[in-house]
């Protein structure tokens, strides 16, 4: 069972299985699910932000991501 309504337009991308913290210099895998309302774009990315960030420019690092056609789940991997 998915953690949210796939037809929702409120939460179009939901991250799942998120640990409270990660040890330094380890690979971080971010798993997420799309709603059916999500419209992918070639400029989509997933970023890691410090706690308390205030603007989208406050990211620590990011990776470009692509949605595979017909898939509602994906992941972004940040190498440690």
From TrEMBL:
Signal peptide: none annotated. InterPro entries: SKICH, UBA_autophagy_assoc_protein. The keyword Phosphoprotein does not apply. Keywords: Coiled coil. Residues 13-77 form the SKICH domain. This is SKICH domain-containing protein. It comes from Oryzias sinensis.
């Amino acid at each position: 069972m998915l953690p949210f309504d796939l037809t929702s337009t409120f939460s179009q991308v939901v991250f799942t299985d998120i640990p409270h913290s990660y040890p330094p210099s380890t690979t971080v895998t971010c798993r997420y699910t799309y709603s059916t309302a999500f419209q992918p774009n070639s400029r989509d990315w997933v970023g890691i932000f410090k706690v308390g960030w205030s603007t989208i420019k406050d990211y620590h690092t990011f990776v470009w991501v692509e949605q595979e056609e017909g898939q509602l789940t994906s992941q972004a991997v940040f190498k440690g």
